[in-house]
Amino acid sequence: MKNRFSDNVLRMAALVAILLTTACSTTYKVDPALVAQFKPEAQPTQDETYVYVIRGSAFQGGIRGAWLAANEQVVADLSNGTHTMLKLASGLNSIHLVQGLAGYGYTKVDNKPGEIVYYSMDYTKGKMIELTPEMGASMVMQTKRAKELKAPRKNDAYDNLLTNPSLLDFPIMKPATEPMKADSESAVISFYRMETLIGEVPFDIWSEEGYVGSTRAGTYFQVRVKPGQHTFVSLSERYSVLEADVEAGKEYIVEFDVDMGWNQAHVQILPIDPVKSAKTIKKWQAKAKLMEVDETVLNQDEFKQRVDLAHEYLTTQFKKVESGELAKRKLNSQHRL
Known about the structure:
Layout: H1 2-22, H2 32-37, E1 48-55, E2 67-70, E3 73-77, E4 82-89, E5 94-99, E6 102-108, E7 116-122, E8 127-131, H3 133-141, E9 144-145, E10 147-154, H4 158-163, E11 173-175, E12 187-193, E13 203-207, E14 210-215, E15 219-225, E16 228-235, E17 239-246, E18 251-260, E19 265-271, H5 278-287, E20 289-293, H6 295-298, H7 301-323, E21 329-331
Parallel strand pairs: 1-7, 4-9, 12-18, 15-20, 17-21
Antiparallel strand pairs: 1-4, 2-3, 2-5, 3-10, 5-6, 7-8, 11-20, 12-15, 13-14, 13-16, 16-17, 18-19
């Protein structure tokens, strides 16, 4: 009996492995007949943008629920093989899926007055993909209308997206040519992100003055600051706060660490002791790619408006730092190179 039971377990495990690797899913193609039959639920005015969001039928991840969020609200239950249509005010809009408190598949739907646009969720890649109208119509016709929520609820991932606008695929960072050097009137802080966990997912850093930069694994960027005190924050599952007290003519190393959290990644801005971590710093300096903020992207209306919204929101958080409500780490003279 024991051997027969073991054999059955092995067979079942093999079957599950086959199903997972084949990842049975519907292959969607443009179907002219379905396109001809398709009629949008409504037509937007010039002040509106209508967005069809489609979650195609797929085996992989198919039993997992997902909710659709638009800006500050969760608006639909988007289960496997369903679609919904969002009626949004034309302007800046961000949509994504939510599981638990975590958002994923972020995309922007900006400044499309009077348009109907189509997106599908690639669950395996965690990305939202814009479709042609023909493909969108074909997929809508082959999926069910998603279950309506009785009322929208708060989008818990919105604050995270607000403080991490690079999640919307803005190419905000570009390769830098020359490392910064501290001088008689300024200090330089280098932010290294070397942890490879979800390394392609960007996380942004802010100071009390505004946007600082975006991090990805294997890169670093530098910030020139005046001597004195500066506060840096980043947000994923919760806030990480670094209070820096720097001297002119000095350089400092900071690590941006990403670990597994409860619902989302856990990010930390960590001051590095240059004596205790001399070997590590040397490896980082030899390996990491130097990046800098692309001022052209920073000044694009779509990005700049989001930065302004985030800066307004973060004003409250910086007040919490000042009052001691948010824990903080300190970077000071013992961390200078």
